[in-house]
Amino acid sequence: MTDKEVLQRYIDVLPFFGKVCGPGAELVVHDLSDPEHSLVAIENNISGRQIGNPMTDLVRELVRSGDHLSADFKADYVGKSKGKKFLSSTYYIKNEGRLIGFLCVNKDMDPVREATGALQCLLERFDLLPPQEGQASENLENPMTDLMHDRIAEIIAQSGVPPVRMSLEEKVRTVHRLNKDGVMMMKGAMAEIAKQLQVSVTTVYRYLNKDLD
């Protein structure tokens, strides 16, 4: 396959990727056979360049550096054009190992910076910035609920048998142990015990009223 044929494949799919990536992402194909007129295709033009424009300084540096010999692309670097900044990435187009062109993607970061600045302003205006390290903090969760959950799980685990494999007698003994431990005095305990033992609340009450052998 000739170099032109390889490059044409990238040129042909450029409109598709331009549509997929959206108008904020510019896509460009460079043909290195003509450095002074290397730009051969462009979608979502946000840099103001035109077909027939020469290679950029960075593209020239990538050619000179030989980075393509050990990598297939260079991602997420800062690009600039007409006062705008982009998040740019470049894919090395090769033919049988030879570098013949570039597929470049330039994402317009201005809307992101504007949105970030507006959000920062909003957070500062209403004093919603996160507290600095070392400032007082409060846990708004119910610590008693966590304690109850952990205590029930601990007592069940002490039986040495997972609930799904417990016999009726083992479940009855576990419920009595939980009652003796005072867990059942806590709000919501019956529902949590039933959940962890994988039975109904009614069954837990029945276990509680059942005498131990």
Please specify the SSE layout and strand pairing:
Elements: H1 3-21, E1 25-31, E2 39-43, H2 57-65, E3 73-81, E4 84-95, E5 98-108, H3 110-125, H4 143-158, H5 168-180, H6 189-197, H7 201-209
Antiparallel strand pairs: 1-2, 1-5, 3-4, 4-5
Helix pairs in contact: 4-6, 6-7
Walk me through the structure:
This protein has 213 residues and is an alpha+beta fold. Helices cover 43% and strands 21% of the residues. The N and C termini lie far apart (86 Å). A 5-stranded antiparallel β-sheet has the order 2-1-5-4-3. It has 2 domains: 3-113, Beta-Lactamase (2-Layer Sandwich); 143-209.
Give the terminus-to-terminus CA distance.
86 Å
Q: Any low-confidence stretches, pLDDT <50, length ≥5? A: 137-141
> Helical amount among residues, as a percent range?
40-55%
Structural class: alpha+beta
Report the sheet-strand fraction. 15-25%
Question: From the alpha-carbon coordinates, what is the Rg to the nearest angstrom?
Answer: 33 Å
Outline, from the CA principal axes?
Answer: elongated
Number of helices: 7
Sheet with the most strands?
Answer: 5 strands, antiparallel
And the CATH topology of the largest domain?
Answer: Beta-Lactamase
- Strands, count: 5
By CATH's scheme, which homologous superfamily of the largest domain applies?
A: PAS domain
CATH arch. level architecture of the largest domain: 2-Layer Sandwich
Helix-strand sequence: HEEHEEEHHHHH
State the CATH class of the largest domain: Alpha Beta
Overall structural domain count: 2
Average pLDDT rating: 88
